[in-house]
Design goal:
Elements lengths: L2 E5 L8 H12 L3 E7 L7 E4 L2 E6 L10 H22 L3 E5 L1 H14 L2 E6 L16 H13 L4 E4 L2 H11 L5 E2 L14 H6 L6 E6 L8 H7 L7 E6 L4 H12 L6 E4 L7 H5 L4 E4 L6 H5 L3 H9 L3 E3 L4 H7 L2 E3 L5 H13 L1 H17 L3 H25 L1
Parallel strand pairs: 1-2, 1-5, 2-4, 5-6, 6-7, 7-8, 9-10, 9-12, 10-11, 12-13, 13-14
Antiparallel strand pairs: 3-4
Length: 392
Amino acid sequence: MFKVAMYVINNFTNDARVRREAATLADKGYQLTVIALKDSETPAEEVIDNFRVKRVRAYTRSLPRIPGFQILKYLEFIIRAVLISLRLRADICHAHDLNALVPAYIAARLLKAYLIYDSHELATQRNIPRRRLWGEMTLWRCLERFLIRKAHLVITVSPEIAAELARMYGIKPPQVIMNCPPYEEVPRHNLLRDHFGIDRADVVIIYQGVFAPNRGLEVLIESLLHLNDEYKLVLLGPHNAYKESLKGLAGKLQVLERVYLHGAVPVEDVVKYVASADVGTFLSNPAIKSHRLGLPNKLFECMVAGTPIVVGAICRELVMELEVGVTCDQSDPLSLAAAINKLYSDRELYGRMQINAKKWARQEYNWQMQGEKLCVLYGNMLQHHLRNTNVS
């Protein structure tokens, strides 16, 4: 069976999409290794769900986080990741996002392997909290233009991003593998209420994910000023400085006693936590093209959990079409509060949206179906390889 090397430039602890893809392919018999970045919290090697993880120990990691040293760190990762690939003798080099495409391309060329580019977002139109270097995005666009045409297969997360990549680079539209969690029967429960001591009669609003600018989090906190005291907000995800700043904002607005901060949970448990909330949210800034054209995993997590969602401009049409939530102006706390109140207080509407969310998650928007599409794409690649082998 084919040997697959997957590349991610993170520590591979909370990367749900990569883990699902790796586990699905490993279950189909592919000998799969994820090449990731080691930090002080993670082991150099481990086995997860029948696939191996090898983490690159970067000796330049301790250098200051300034542009010149960041380039050195990246170059070290590329070299070490390629060396691991050569030792693995990978048949397929599968890059997750543009920064991982460089080592995957080099390894694929050296090994005469298949190259897959799995674009989780529009890499050159994404939300970057740090200051960009002069010419940095131009360089990445040039790299993507060159490398995307070298890939044997390009995958992305939504039809809109697929169409945009095709338009930008003159390629045929990439294959779409949506970022859906597996469908499972998750009962409604009080996991978050029990954890924080929230009253059973209170309404729990949840945001789950990364804490960064342009995700509507300040508006979400400010909306509490326009909601009754029984509405509580849980912010679930990895702790960072930005998350702490949100705590400061809640204190300044005098709603801190209604805001609860929860750390990251294992990717397989996220839906369980969402199922213990009453209202989900997705309020990212539509001015960021990658956000505007994507399909957020938060929406699909809420659907599997049976938790109706409030969204802004992004994925508004899909939410309305499926009747799994309501919409608002994501820049206006008053509009957001009115949407949350309307959703939860209309019990007939709320119940119907709960049923719709589970129905669509079970029938269409689940990883079982998306993972099968991925396996078909890999199977086609394997058949192409066998045909070429027989001809030669």
